[in-house]
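Data availability (excerpt). The following record was deposited with the supplementary files.
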Amino acid sequence: MKITVANSEREFDCTAAWRIIGEILNKPESVIGLSTGRTTGNLHRLIGKIYSEYPFNVASTTFFGLDEVTNVPREYVGACYTMLKTELMDSLGIKEENFLMLPTVSDDFDKACKDFQQEIANRGGIDLLILGLGENGHLGFNQPQSPFEGEAWVTKMNVELETRIRRETNTPADKELGGATLGIKNIMQARKIVLVAKGANKADIVKEMLEGPVTTDIPASILQLHPNCEFLFDNAAASKLSCSY
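Predicted structure:
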């Protein structure tokens, strides 16, 4: 287990960005998983900025999103597809066939989830996976009590997020919203993981994740057992850890 603490937001974003760029430079045909949210947006845009100034070869790199909101338009600004496309894929000029995403709409989500994880496997499996950390310890849409042996599936989202998405998309109450996501078993199969978390609001869950027991109450705690996982924090997120890093 490797813990890296950045002294500024700029250092945090640069460190994370160069983890991704370094993977591509070392292995251009890498399969790289990305997460969306407030923690990752700036680091995605920074990669695009670096690429515009110092282009590197991404023609054979596969990118995919860890999860996706279900039953919303794919063009919705909060859809993971749209977020990743606007934050990074467009600036790198990634072709659609090298940008894998779970669907927002499907007649058979179970099949879509199986097809998604199979396509990742067909491309050689996950070389690098960037993970965000939820305030309750969730990974993707794997909320507390999600099974550690779970594969790609559709889960329920938390009430606050569902309420916001319904408001932003004018989705009626009788239309079910959810979150399609790789399961924890899929996550643990990644060859390399970087979990990123910043802000004082993440300090408590960071401590529980790293210094508490491995438990489905805190899905991210399973990462204690991953053989090649780096935890990247800013000072605020790391502030309650017992040891200084």
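Summary of structural features: The chain has one domain: 2-234.
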